[in-house]
Amino acid sequence: MRVYHGAILTVDATDRVVQYLVEDGGRIEYVGDDLPERYAGVPRTELGNGALCPAFVDTHEHLASFATFNAGLNVMGARSNGEIRSMVADFAASSSAKTLIAFGASPYSVEEGRLISREELDEVCPDKPFFMVKYDGHACVVNSKLLDKVRSKVRGLRGCHEDSGEMNQEAFFAVSDYITGSLSIPELVGNIQRAMDCLAARGIGMVHTVSGVGFTGNLDISLEKWLARSAQSGFQVRVFPQSMDVRVATRRKLPRIGGCFACALDGCFGSRDAALLEPYADGSGDKGVLYYTDQQVVDFCKRANRAGLQIEMHAIGDAAFDQATRALKAALDDFPRSDHRHGIIHACLPTDEGLDICAHYGIHLPMQTSFIDWPQEPDSYLESILGTTRASALNPLRRFADAGIVLSAGSDAPCTDPDPILWMHRACNHSVPQQSLTPREALRMCTYNGAWVTFDEGERGSLEVGKMADMVVLSANPYEVERGALGDIEVKQLLLGGRPYEPQAQGAFSALIKGATGRGGCF
Fold it and tell me: Is the pLDDT of residue 319 over 50?
């Protein structure tokens, strides 16, 4: 049993801020402004100028991919392709991996204004296959050694550019499948657990992972379930299989389906293949790519909805957003459900018609506020391809909130670094100021709403009596600091079930194969 004293941000139905919280046996026993006499002798943690809030929830992450890339080379901070080449050379010289993986290359954050090329990768890494994934997770550049291995798989596919080594659209998916299929089980397990440790260090106690990205037999889905069940830390994982085949979820007794990859309705702005209602502003006349016909998406949504599954789909452009909303509406008109919790991931460029459907049918939006003022995809680039009017309409958080649509927060990792403090900062300091949220709304988006998305709000997401004591100690109270200083808040500690989180990576594989039963959760 332990007493916490200070600013307790409950994120309950009335957003109470109280002075005391008592945890006992992993659950919250008491919250209030006065400490009952019976707790007088209980060990106490003084929060001082800090605050206690619910553990954060990452509602959209590619956990296995993030784990894989997190174990490789991150070049997001590079500001030139020359710097990237130097980083690749050092990485190639020090790594013993048979295939080298890097992530984060962007043509918009380097001085050359273009992606690094196959030829440049060959100069610094000629002897090992090298897989350089673009920052948006929808394209890559391969060196010649890797191209030799995948040429038969990508030749003739949309998005294959052998000369530059760039692969996007279907060609990128084929290369990704090859890479993920080459990973060993011990390697993948260790990487996933290290990724969980990384998330926990940021105060994240639950992740919604979209899985099924080319691992043989959907190995990533199975491993994420098994590893979460064997974890001793209390870390929670909710798996969304990325498939249009409802059986992938039902055979595993998973109550949800969706994500990106096979459930992506369009591409992204970084590759100029997000599906738009009007052409891009670059004069090409191109409107991007819708991967499926309306009928295909409607049929999938109807099957999944009738099977009782929760559905999520990726939609970046306004044409894809409209397609998603129309399909979910058709499914719910076909088979009404009062509490389905279907969602549209990203929803970067919404339409009035689509928002009306979301509000009327209770469709929630897992947002990525890290996309706001994103160095890898700067406003100047977005304005150049979309025009000022459309660029200023991206990620309209206030518009969503005022429409009564439930917003949650996710990283889309590995596309962005999983950082809930950054999520709140960007949400409250929108590049279009009138689209900003309040700190209270932002904290709810990152905590309670995330738990609500997967029907976990009865156990987690707010600090209320009877709930699990999944909590984060912050260095300051986000309700009291200046909005511009929200990003300076630090995560001091994550507590899951009342216990301080301890890194679990060591021994993760042995725990898995022994079938250890712990306090982790996955379903």
Answer: yes
Helix residue ranges, H only, 307-393: 318-334, 352-361, 379-386, 388-392
Locate 303 and state its tokens: 């099957």
Q: Tell me the DSSP string of 80-115.
A: SHHHHHHHHHHHHHH---SSEEEEEE-SSSSTT-S-
Long-range pairs for 439-443 at CB < 8 Å and ≥24 separation?
439/478, 439/479, 439/483, 439/486, 440/15, 440/479, 441/401, 442/478, 442/486, 443/9, 443/11, 443/53, 443/478, 443/479
For residues 140 and 56, give the distance between their C-alpha atoms in angstroms, rounded to a whole number: 30
Burial 461-492 (b: 16+ CB within 10 A, else e): bbbbeebbbbbbbbbbbbeebebeebeebebe
Asked if 175 and 133 count as a contact pair (C-beta separation under 8 A), the reply is: no
**Helical pair 294-306 and 318-334, crossing angle rounded to 10 deg:** 40
- Cα(328)–Cα(334) distance, integer angstroms: 10
Kindly provide the residue ranges of all beta strands, DSSP E only, lying in 219-295, ordered along the sequence: 236-241, 256-264
Contact 174, 157 (CB under 8 A): yes
The model carries a pTM of: 0.90
203 touches 420 (CB < 8 A): yes
Instruction: Output the six-digit token pair for 168.
Output: 């996007």
Count other Cβ atoms within 10 Å, centred on residue 497: 17
Give mean pLDDT, residues 390-406: 98
Residue 291 DSSP symbol: S
Q: Which of 175, 172, 181 shows the shortest CA–CA distance to 145?
A: 175
**Phi and psi torsions of 337, nearest 5°:** -135, 135
pLDDT tens-digit series, residues 493-523: 999 999 999 887 654 434 433 343 333 443 4
Which residue type is seen at 6? G
pLDDT in tens, 219-230: 677 777 776 665
Neighbours of 8 (CB within 10 A): 22
DSSP string, 455-522: T-TTTSSS--TTSB--EEEESS-TTTS-GGGGGG--EEEEEETTEE-----TTHHHHHHTT---S-EE
- Would you say 345 and 60 are in contact if contact means Cβ atoms under 8 Å apart? yes
Euclidean distance between CA atoms 364 and 14, whole angstroms: 21
Q: Is the dihedral of CA 159, 160, 162, 167 positive or negative?
A: positive
Q: CB within 8 A of 197, min separation 6: which ones?
A: 503, 504, 505
